[in-house]
Amino acid sequence: MRSKEDFPQAGCCRSDAIDGAPFTSGRYLLALALVTVAWLAAGSAMAQAPGAKPRSSLGMAAVALKSPYAGYKTDTLGAPIISYEGQRFHLRGGSLGFKLLDNPTTEVSLLASPYMMRFKRKDSDDLQMRQLSNRGFSAMAGVAVRHSASWGLVQANVQAEVSGHGGGLAADAKYAYPLPVGKVTLVPAVGANYAGRALNDYYFGVRSAEAQRSGLARYRAGGGVSPYLEATAVLPLGPHWTATASLRRARLSDAIKDSPMTRGDHMDSAALSLSYGF
Question: If you ran DSSP here, which 8-state letter would residue 134 be given?
Fold first, then answer.
């Protein structure tokens, strides 16, 4: 909702602190790589039989991502895939987990992961957006659950922001059902992502000083839910090699969609990968 009040200090002070931070293209490529790994690794894991454990893997992927921020172009690039599955620890797309429970059908883990959203004003072609402050990546910590059965697979996590960007909660829940079609396994999935007020406020709010500089309306973002649909195709190429292709469309929550920083009501992603599992 739009507001004539200034932002609360806890939700905005970090925006100024990182305004001149040295964001580099390498750091952005790393972020896209982490997104790709998490997404494709999840799709490959969901394509396995119930009770099968995810494998460690190395590979490469091509990914296309469209930011919801105004003036941002679609980014298409290559990214490495590195996934590790240990007895207690796992690394999946930059998310580090410690298993509290691990049996043939259910896994419960403590989770530390990056929140994959950032705004770099110089990346926008919109002149008003270029007057805003940068927003950096956030660190999250929480718990994740994965359960597989004959009726499908459910994944969910709840995390809190711990990097000083105003706090806030984020949660994600997804259901998928693998469908074998010859050698290919199709994995349709439906899910929803929740971002709390503090997180949305940090990434999509417009403070008084920013409004004066840019001419954009002052905006205080609330919490919201963004539902999404996914479709993944997994093709084994032998005992170790796997090719994976994925598409995702997410509908932006009203809290994000109504921000003067965004354009449109959805966000699309696509990825192709070739990985070696061991």
Answer: P
Contact assessment for residue 250 and residue 240, using Cβ atoms and an 8 Å cutoff: no
Taking only the tens of pLDDT, the chain with its 278 residues reads 444 333 333 333 333 333 433 333 444 545 555 555 555 555 555 555 555 567 788 888 888 888 899 999 877 777 787 888 999 999 887 789 999 999 989 999 999 998 878 898 998 999 999 999 999 889 999 999 999 999 999 999 999 999 988 889 999 999 999 999 999 999 999 999 999 999 999 999 999 999 999 999 999 999 999 999 999 999 999 999 999 999 999 999 999 999 999 998 998 888 888 989 88
DSSP annotation of 133 reads: P
Q: What share of the chain is helix, strand, coil (3-state, %, to 5)?
A: 20, 45, 35
109 burial type by CB count under 10 A (0-12 exposed, 13-18 middle, 19+ buried): buried
Q: pTM to 2 decimals?
A: 0.81
Phi-psi region of 94 (alpha: psi -120 to 50; beta: other; left: phi over 0): left
Q: Name, in order, each residue with C-beta under 8 angstroms of 207's C-beta and a sequence gap of 6 or more.
A: 6, 7, 12, 15, 133, 218
Amino acid at 232: T
| DSSP secondary structure letters along 240-273 | SEEEEEEEEEEEPPHHHHTSTTB-SSEEEEEEEE
| Residue 176, amino acid | A
